[in-house]
Amino acid sequence: MCCEKLSPRQALLFSVFYAIVVIVVCSLFQSDFFYIDDAAYEMLGFFRQIGHIWAQGKIPFIVDSMYIGGNEMIDLGKGIFLPQNILVSLITSQFHYIQLPGLILAFINIVLVSCSALVIAKSFKLHNTYAYAFASLVVIQPVFLYQYLGAWWNAASGQAWAMVSIATFFLLRNSFSKTNIILNFISVIFLLSAGWPHGVIGYAVVVGVSLIFQLKRFGNLKKVFYLSTPTILACIFAFPVYSEYLFSYDLINRVSGFDSQDRAFTPSWSTIILGFFPTFYDYITYIRYRLMLIPFGFSTLFVPLVFFYRDVKILWQRDINLKWFLLLIVVFFVLSQMPGQFGPLRWPFRFLPFISLFICLAVFYILQFAPVVKGNTIRLSRKIYNCLYAIWGGFFIFLPFYAGFDTLVLILFLLLMLFLMERSLFNLNESILYNFNKKYFFIILFTSCFVFFNSWNLHPIYVVLQIFSIWLLLLSPKMVERKSTFGLAGLSLLILVMLLTGLPTLGGYYLRQTDLPEHIQLPDNVNLQGYILSLPNNIYLRQTRQLNDIASAQFGFYDIKSINGYSPVGSKRLEQVLPVNQTAHGIFMPRQALKNILQIKGNLPVCHAVLMRISTIIVKKTDYAAFSRQFQQCGYIEVQPAGSRNDLYVSLPLEQTKGWDTNSPFVFPDLAGIKHLKHDNNTDLVRIPEHNDTTILIFPRLWWYGYSADVNGYSLPVVADNSGSLIQVSIPPHLHGMLTLSYFPVTWRYLWFLPMLALIGLMTLLFNNRKQNKSV
């Protein structure tokens, strides 16, 4: 067994250094690698607004500057309680550098994943060399690197905390100590706070399978109970994070159901089986059925090697861990083959990082603990050797002519990196032929046929990458035999370069990507005292240069109050007023939306747009022409054209929107002396003078459970207005004083004891740890 120690300091230093290298390499290939698609359309804007709220010392339950996605107790994916999200939101609120949030999040999450991978490797007593190689491969898994770090920041944080939770569970399994109990408890709380369901499911599968094996191996139900207790306590502690979402389920419009049409986002079997090829490009229904120019299922080069250079059969017979690895791989494989829409879960390719994780772990475990199977040493005659070198040299001389001389730098760079990792690169007797296995050689050549087949019609640069992939696979037995930390970690970086050469970023190829400036010039005469409603569909624009180009939650990044936003779960009540084609991005149906907001409902004297405090509407000229009379009846006037895209800015006069900058409520009937004293994300304070009639106040807030109102301690009902979407409070006659409208999650008023209960359970477990540790 391995007795090498890996100190926390060494693990942290390696992880920090490797994270910096990965970020630099990715940014060199594509400067905006870490803020595309959902990051640019959702997280950037919300992080800036959430950061403003945290900076005021308040909890961002409600982001009052955006209607869509403004309730963070419902939009769990923003993970407002995650430490890295709090830090990044504060930084985003202070600095207007677009790339900074993504770079910081990528650094933190890569460090978390790398440190966790090292802990996992050492919990199975792998050599330090294999541990570093394992960590370096887990970090560059394409789904995590391209999809999560680049586009889905919430997924990257969720995956990172899933890794931390798995690592701390393994620590706990190896040593049931107070420190490990606390670490596992805290990490699972953060995992649950991330709101990333696939991370939670992945951790649950690992824990469940591990506990089943523990029970089968030792038959000790007591041990299983104690190992699962920190996770159970963490679930109790974090349940209030989900309680409001569950309680408000009738208000949201989360996509659900069962749909496997075109196997959307479901990886093929070949993607997983040939995951050892860093250049296996496969077809997948990703937005549309298309060839993916990155191997989403990549795990490690060494998968085929272990079946020919290690006696897996002997290890299988004597080691239960190998069976445990296989069961986890099978379970995650089954999960990855679920329908594209499976209830509230979507897109099963999100389980690929877990498959790759345990394939890598199994491979390095076999490399270390399985008996070595020696290949044959082949010595070629000098004549054959010279012929091979002549063919080899001629091939590389011809290669730039075939692939184009623009690939010459790439070819030379890859050759240099290979040479630095394996000095005997060009000495066949000391590299490929030294420990030669015919079966392994022919398997690599056979599988390479499938790889070439899928990229047959691509640019010749992909052929160059395929050739280097095959070369790496043939050299891998020699690299493993050397067991060089520098060589194996360097191999991961070389694979990263090959991945990025094949596809520098998902943006511009498969995902929406827009070039965001640090600041935009606001047009003159456009009223921004209230909210802005942008009806054109701008999510496919490649450049944002002016106000009418902004889409989704990007308004938040420029500190502009907007109806627009981003919410995967939506709001049924708001969508009744503003129908959408796509819930997440808030892609409106312009004419239906205008019809609803430019009309008077009930006995109120103003249009619904005025109740929502919409001071400016960006609209297509044709839509304005169709509703010009309704615009005029509501007081909106055409201000100016919006650039060259046939858009118009339609605003209310400034004198009609006094107080809208602080989200003052609409009062009916008009009441002299009423004063809006304070507004923040969760609270409004309004001074109510003496009056003789019932006074109605309609606040520009989306209606959710959890709002309460009182005047001098006298509770008032908070109801929805006539549209069903806004907050309405009715003040009875003769009741005057200070009206307080506030939001607090309604379920928290009843579940506040759960965190206390979990902490009491944790302290009890820690108090009894010494006694239980002896029995466990």
Task: Describe the fold and architecture.
This protein has 776 residues and is α+β, with helices and mostly antiparallel strands. Among the domains are: 383-482, no CATH class; 531-660, no CATH class; 663-745. The chain is 51% helix and 11% strand. The chain contains 29 helices and 20 strands. The strands form 6 sheets. The chain has a 5-stranded antiparallel β-sheet with strand order 13-14-20-16-17, with no helix packed on it. It has a 4-stranded mixed β-sheet with strand order 6-9-11-10. Helix 4 packs parallel to helix 7 and helix 9 (197-218) packs antiparallel against helix 14 (320-336). The chain starts with 7 loop residues before the first helix and ends with a helix. The model has no long low-confidence stretch (mean pLDDT 91).
Which strand-content bin applies to the residues? Answer: 5-15%
Report the major sheet.
Answer: 5 strands, antiparallel
Give a count of the beta strands, DSSP E runs of length 2 or more.
20
Low-confidence stretches: none
Strand sequence of the main sheet, in spatial order?
Answer: 13-14-20-16-17
Give the distance, in angstroms, between the N- and C-terminal Cα atoms.
22 Å
Mean pLDDT comes to 91
Radius of gyration: 30 Å
Instruction: Tell me the overall shape.
Output: globular
What is the count of DSSP helices, taking H or I runs of 4+ residues? 29
Class per helix and strand makeup: alpha+beta
Give the fraction of residues assigned to helices. Answer: 40-55%
